[in-house]
Each structure stands twice: as C-alpha cells, then as structure tokens.
TrEMBL record:
Main location: mitochondrion
Domain of life: Eukaryota
Region (Disordered): 1-22
Protein name: Uncharacterized protein
Basic and acidic residues: compositionally biased ranges: 1-14
Pfam families: COX7a
Keywords of this entry: Membrane, Mitochondrion, Mitochondrion inner membrane, Transmembrane, Transmembrane helix
Transmembrane segments: 102-124
Subcellular location: Mitochondrion inner membrane
Keyword hit for Membrane: yes
GO cellular component: mitochondrial inner membrane; respiratory chain complex IV
Family the entry assigns: Belongs to the cytochrome c oxidase VIIa family.
An example Gene Ontology biological process: mitochondrial electron transport, cytochrome c to oxygen
C-alpha cells in the first residue's frame, strides 16, 4: 500500500490509469488506481493554453455581466443635451448634477473655511482648533 491507500508496484510507485486530456479545457489529470480514489494527484494545467482559454471566457462574460452589451446608444441624446444653448453651465445640464456638485461644494468650501480658521488661530499663537492653547 502507498500513502494514499493504492496498490504499489514493485518499483514503489502506485499503479496509474491511462491519462487523457479533458475534452473542453484540455487539462490533463492523472488518476491513481480505483482503490486510491481519495488521493488524486492532479498535474498542473498546460499554462499558456489554460490561461488563454480562461481569458477568452472571461473577456466575453464580464462585459455582459456589467450590462455593456446590447445597450441603447445614448451618445445622440447627450450630444443634443450638452449642445443646447439654454444658458446653463455644462456641469449643471444633467439631472444628476446636483447629486454630484452639492457634496463637492460642501467639501470644497468647508475645507477652505476650516483651514482659514486654523491659520488665523495659528497667527495668534493657538495650536488647536478650540481651547486656550
């Protein structure tokens, strides 16, 4: 018996079954005899072929999962929207502009005011935002 429970041959190796590549992936798996099924040594895949097939599969799947295939072409709509002469700034023309710009303005002006306040305190010798020191 070998370490996996398979029958050993005279040379100390376990008896192996014939090796055939997998029909779709091309990965070759070497199997021990049927008595040693619980301990299957798997040979590493043929690296270039395996990774090329994997990349091909993933490159077709990920765009479909992300919703980029068979989408409506929105370029003419946005082109008309942004080329209208309606007096609005370009960054305010979409419906989502406020959701993006108001938090930006709060962080921009808030940071400017806080740093100006802190610099004013530093000029007067205070090293903290509030308190005596």
């Amino acid at each position: 018996m070998d370490q996996c429970g398979g029958e050993e041959r005279g040379d100390g190796r376990a008896e192996q079954l014939p090796v055939e590549p997998h029909p779709t992936t091309g990965v070759t798996i070497s199997l021990l005899s049927l008595s040693a099924r619980h301990c299957l040594p798997i040979s590493p895949p043929d690296t270039p072929t395996f990774y090329l097939k994997l990349a091909k599969m993933v490159s077709r799947t990920i765009p479909r999962l992300a919703g980029f295939v068979y989408r409506e072409n929105r370029v003419p709509y946005f082109q008309r929207l942004f080329q209208q002469h309606d007096g609005k700034r370009q960054w305010w023309k979409t419906g989502r502009s406020g959701a993006l710009l108001y938090p930006y303005y709060v962080s921009l002006w808030g940071t400017a005011l806080i740093t100006t306040y802190a610099m004013g305190r530093m000029v007067f010798g205070k090293k903290t935002f509030f308190g005596k020191e």
